[in-house]
Amino acid sequence: MDFDLSRRAALSALAAAGVAGVAGCTGTPSSGSDKTTASTTAEESTTTQTTEQTASDERAPEPADSPTAAIEAFVTAEDASAFQGPFHPLHPFSVEQLSREEAENLFENSTFPEDVTLERVDRDVTVDLVLSGTLPGPDTERSAIEDTLAGTDAAVVEVTYESETGTETVRFVTVEQADGWLILAQGVGSQGESPDTALAARVVSGVAFEPDQNAARVQFVSTVVADSVTVEAVQSGDTTPTSTPGSVSYLEVGVEPGGDEVVVSATVDGESRVVHRERFPESDRLVDDIEFVVDPETDDRDAIARVNFNDNDEEGRVRVVTTVADSSSEAEPVGSLNYLNVGAHPDGDEVVVSYPVGGDTEEIHRERFSP
Question: Cross-referenced InterPro entries, in alphabetical order (predicted)?
């Protein structure tokens, strides 16, 4: 396998192969704190690493003393052996899953962010959180993750670094084993909000496009929860606002016949949010519809959102995220997908679909569910 990836791109979870990581920086944790600041200066790492090459059947994980030390061992690695050391066997970078040759190829074709800060954050580690990561990925067996997390400590570490576009953050999941801490997952989502906070506004029950009239009608729920609502057609530029959403049942906007995007924003207690987004014509967009299923028979999660895709020839990678359950799933090429499932909160959730992941990523669909 020939890797041609940079760890900066990987850290952003944008690499086509789904690789995510940080490297090339050294640093020492501050006294009494779980935060580490690292830089590319040539200092000696405080994390002991075994860099001696051994036969493949002798390679083994090298646990670290703390969650941040496990990430630091990765970012300060000076060769492929040290690079693989801090990864749990479920992780694709581990010595159990990545051959010596593949690891050396990946390591040698890596570039380095200039500054990295590591910080352990207070957050519960669940199976869904691990599955939401870019790696090991949503196809990992849930039972294997459950067994790994059972009866042991786990922690989330936020890795912040400076890129050409500004400050970026990636989150890792580490797990404590008998001899120390190993990296289990990376690229997990940010802390999700509660349904009451994230879904404070209730507005849209559906959108009907009327091609003969070049219009879109946004139908409201029976009891609107919002102080004001604005519907915008992005391409045509037509906008329809209302400061009394409770007194109307729908709003209409004119759409561009060749294709448009309808965006609905709502304001509650002075805070405005986009609450709905979908594209026209329906036959040409990636997302056909979204099904919310509470207590699904074929999934052990409390609820899921199933994003169904239209037939298309797109070859890029698509990402689906729920903002409340804080779950995500992504796959490529999207043209080969019928649907993607993602964990959802049974009391209500919001699904955001982005495409193409790894390029000029855009949010292409946003939809809310309330039971």
Answer: TAT_signal
Torsion of Cα atoms, 8 then 12 then 16 then 17, to 10°: 80
Contacts for 270 with CB less than 8 Å, ≥ 6 apart:
none
Q: Mind listing the domains of the chain with CATH numbers?
A: 7-188 (no CATH), 200-282 (2.60.40.10), 286-371 (2.60.40.10)
Measure CA 277 to chain center: 19
Quick: pLDDT tens for 3-15.
Answer: 333 343 333 332 2
Residue in the block written with tokens 């870019």: 134
pLDDT, tens digit, 9 for 90 and up, residues 282-306: 888 999 999 999 999 887 788 999 9
Beta partners for residue 267, in sequence order: 228, 272
Sheet holding 228-233, edge to edge: 239-242, 228-233, 260-268, 271-280, 362-369, 349-357, 317-322, 327-331
